[in-house]
Fold:
Amino acid sequence: MTAEIGQFALVLALVLALAQAIVPLFGAWRGDGALMAIGRNAALLQAAFVAIAFAALAAAYLANDFSIALVAAHSNSAQPLIYRFGAVWGSHEGSMLLWVLILALYGGAVALFGGPLRDTLQARVLAVQGMIGAAFLGFLLFTSNPFTRLFPAPLDGAELNPVLQDPGLVFHPPILYLGYVGFSIAFSFAIAALIEGRVDAGWARWVRPWVLASWVFLTVGIAGGSLWAYYSLGWGGWWFWDPVENASFMPWLLGTALLHSSLVLERRGALISWTILLAILTFSLSLVGTFLVRSGILTSVHAFALDSRRGVYILAIIAAATGSALTLFAARARAMRTGALFAPLSREGGITLNNLFLLAATATVFLGTFYPVFVEAVHGEAISVGPPYYRQTFVPIFLPLLLLAGFGPMLNWKRDKARTLVRRLAAPLVLAGVALVVATLFAGLGRVLSVLGLSLGVWLIAAAAAVLARRWRIGHGSGTEVLRLARTTPLAVWGMVLAHAGLGVTTLGITAVSAWQTNKVLTLTAGQSTALAGKTVTLQSVHIVRGPNYEANQARFEVSGVGGARTLISERRFYPVSQTHTTQAAIGVGPLGNTYISIGDQDPTGALVVRLWRHPLVGWIWGGGLIMALGGALSLADRGLRRAAVKRTSVAAAQTVPVSA
Amino acid sequence: MRGALYLLPVLLFGLVIAAFAVGLDRDPAQLPSTLIGKPLPAFALPPVRPGEAGLKTADLRGQPRLLNAFASWCVACRVEHPVLLALKARGVPIEGLDWKDEAADGAKYLGDNGDPYGQVGNDRSGRAGIDLGVAGVPETFVIDGAGVVRYKQIGPISPDDWVRTIAPLMERLRAAS
Structure:
């Protein structure tokens, strides 16, 4: 019964999405308020029906309903409850259902909270959301139906891939999707603006919260995915330039560019067509990411389903969505020129440069990702161009961007002077210089990249702090004035400072772990010790333990160093249902670095293969990511507060930028 | 002129989509390696495992064997690795080409994951890889007893590839030499 409810709900959602795609568009054209209102209701109902379908699938998983093919293939009665729930999106079909659910929820949110929007703009945004929704609901129903029945129903199911049986599965996909599906809103706003032929500061003010929210989720999603890979793959890698990682990283890079350019549009009314283009491209890259993962065009730890029919369908969606968007852009954007001028050395100029670097970085990742896909499409096998490619292309583009990111926030709008800019940043420049010298003395001349990375990390954090120091008039004003200024600093400023400083923290983490990690492999028997980066690691005991649906060889280690001793547990698990092994690494987490131990096979004499790593500052990589996301969230909160204030004083008149042909 | 600029994104996008579409239904057998049927190009590579001989063209003569290009940074190679180890256990001679990799990293990779290779050469610059037409890793060449390339596998060798394609070919080459 649940399967049929879910199936009908999906069909109804598709019909509603089609109505949402057509009716409000027509209503906006005719200026008919009633037709436009249908769009809002359709969006809310569509979200409700997709939610019902999702709930039906989740209920089937939780109830072990193996008469549904998808449940039988990805769940098992011995699987813990939490992973039976996580398994809902652990398969291709379920994961697409989650995708569609989040898309529909975003659409519903625009219908619900889009009150202050111009009616015609809201109607058109919802129509575009409806088109995307209809396309993906069609994809789900026609190529990847999650509710297909299996007859006769098996007594028990196969198992969810044991690698996925991890708390990461429960959090990572929803957060990641909240990020990159969220960019659909920016896309819809861009299309709506092109249809209307009208973009103004008000447009930027409305679209920016959605961009911010998506960016925050995507940042957390990517950082979380990287952390998950680090602790679960058993060899301490945290980023692999895997095509699926790139699929989320490209929208993040362009989304970051969009975040900045929309700020210029909001504040200064400049970069209009550029912002529109970025909005289109960012979501297009989200679609391309979906294509990469879902088409089965590549083999990867992340790809679940291999079916070229799906690939063709998604390719058609991309061609239609992005193709028509860019055509519309070519036709309309030219007319949306801007009157606001700025000098090359200005906040606007800095952000333009930031955008160009981010675009170039995205292009290198795009080429690196798709070159092997093309080779694979031609030869039918996966190959990888790997980190050497990215080291030579992405890193040289990103390093100057990090340097710029320190200068940007200190630049004045409109125009600035190089000499005073340098004077304002004197302290961070000196600090970064000292870091450069010290790191060179410490690491030697041969490690140019590591030295630069450390120096840039220090630079970013110091430059972000300098923004606050300048704002608070530290060294100029009295103590009470500094305190007053500190108290009244808007959340948006805190947000920007944290985001930039977080980037610095991540840079330090990446640099340290890339340059100074150490490791060793050896066999140990119980009671033996070995030294690792100033610590003593002792294998205390090895036992067989039983989990809910696995058996594990469990090794207990004692790691002792200056700070005392602690016990770490590493497991090698065997899942009998799917006959697979997984490794649970033992990780001793510390602020200055992690001790990472994973175990291999045990020989008949009891000697255990042990791999040990010391990863200096590795936690800073994700910590920095979280700080960046927190910055974005504060900025978003600031907008909410300010909007409430605007409402109170009711001066919400949107300033319109002159449109000249 | 400005109009042309605004058209650029949609034109570029058209190219990308065309490439995808071609890629999606291209016949996998259409682009054979240009090296097939020709002798191996000359190379002499330093060793990966310290203290051993490296790998040079002359080493790849005498009996049919596999030449496998891999790298420590390559995720797909880790997938392929158990297959190579199984082949080694069955006595299949495999030489390794550690492509665009530091020798120390390559040695660590073999230490961590097991070592299926007879001789391993380190192609740090990727120069030998260019001569061989290596586009990415893993790739595997089947070389006959006279040092002539007979087959090139792009991507990891699956047990299926081995049974269906490579094993019969090796059998024929062994019978011929």
In short: The first helix of chain A runs from residue 2 to 30.
